[in-house]
Amino acid sequence: MSSLSVLAQEIRGLYAGWSSSGKLVRPICAALLSLFLQGCARPPVREPVTLTFLEEWTNKTFSEARQQELQQFTRETGIRVSLLPSPDSARQRLVLWRELLGTGASGPDVYAIDVIWPGMLAEYFIDLKPYFANEVSLQFPATAAGYTVDNKLVAMAYRADIGLLYYRTDLLRQYGYREPPRTWDELEIMAARIQAGERAKGKKEFWGFVWQGAADEVLTCNALEWQAAEGGGRIIEEDQTISVNNPQAIRAWQRAARWVGSVSPPGVVGYREWDSLNVWVAGDAAFMRHWPSAYLDSQAAGSSIRDKFDTALLPAGKSGRVGTLGGWGLAVSRFSAHPREALQLVRYLTRRDVQVKRSRTLSQPPTQPELYNLPEVLGPNPRFALLSQAFQTGIVSRPSNIIGKKYQDVSDAYIQAVHSVLTREKSAPEAAAALENELVGITSFKKGRPPAGISNGTAKGSSESVH
């Protein structure tokens, strides 16, 4: 058995015992690095290079598709790729990535990184700009900006994400609605009416609207959408102004707290992506906020809502419609023993034809605007028609690159403040004021107010669905 196979098995065994507190991160890193140093000596010159690729956690469908991509890459280049397993929690992945990279020793060659990680990890990766200047110019500007820190291209985006609204077309028709809600207030009204009607039919566990309210990064995404749509800013603005303590953000939090236990389950304050998706796929909700990836599960053969739903841009507030920018990119470790081959892998996985195929097989939104005009992309994914517009004009980005290495502390503070409002432990004004002071302590930035409108633009006035 090869040393890389031993490495993969060892990681899987260690992950099986992973604690929720993440206390096993250092032993995992120690074991991983020990295996690299003791058993992963460079192969003889005549043997093909084997890259190690530390991927984001994905489900079975995505993992199988990724393996097929890597097999094709090997056929084209002769370069082998060992795909290493990773934790299923984004927070645990970030801890592991930091531990591995922080040692300065040779380890994985290519890392998949979340769009909010470049500011925290930039020092560990090579600048891709000299190698991908043409390719990055073809990407959505907001996506490319998310992976750029101090003019350094930390990673190349290969998957674009944005928050979307999923809605039941059959139920909207039954209750006399011709289109999805245009505003958050309309969503609340429609959700309450449909919920009451379905419960009157005996569906006692039916809810109007499910989303992700757990005290995790996904709550930052949801809450940022609520407040940015109302003109409540990005928590911390481009000029390093702490803007979160403002009336628009406070009102947006208060409205969301009103949903809990009324149109949303009391337990929504503990929901992560899979929790909300399970309720939705079971047919127990009229609306859901989620990412584009939820479409595959919603339309799967066993789904009770197959062919009974559609997707749309999120509802608007006073400043317009906005979805939080998500996604993943590929970065090359500056400690890689095979940087040339690692760059080839990044180039292949972000290549135009590979993205087109991924959009067809996985319904994954491409990172280049021009691809949304191709029949082979739009045909299987007609809902992509408005996604291009959303990625260019309806995006709000989390302030990760503004804050840099302290982003996790800022996000954690924001999460706890919003969560305390949702659980009614604190009033929204009290939580916002305390958060503002806490962020001053973390960042030393000044207090202020958000600029007019939405910093990253907004798609105003459009109520069309994206399917």
Model description:
This protein is of the alpha/beta class and 467 residues long. The strands form 5 sheets. Strands 1, 2, 3, 6, 14 and 15 form a 6-stranded mixed beta sheet that branches. It is 45% helix and 14% strand.
Features:
467 residues, six-stranded mixed β-sheet, D-Maltodextrin-Binding Protein, domain 2, 20 helices, 14% strand, disordered C terminus, four-stranded mixed β-sheet, globular, 16 strands, alpha/beta
- Tell me the number of helical segments per DSSP (H or I, 4 or more residues long): 20
- What profile does the largest beta sheet have? 6 strands, mixed
CATH class term of the domain at 3-160 and 325-387: Alpha Beta
What is the CATH homology-level superfamily of the domain at 3-160 and 325-387?
Periplasmic binding protein-like II
Poorly predicted segments:
1-24, 35-40, 456-467
Query: Based on DSSP secondary structure assignment, what is the total number of beta strands?
Result: 16
Structural class: alpha/beta
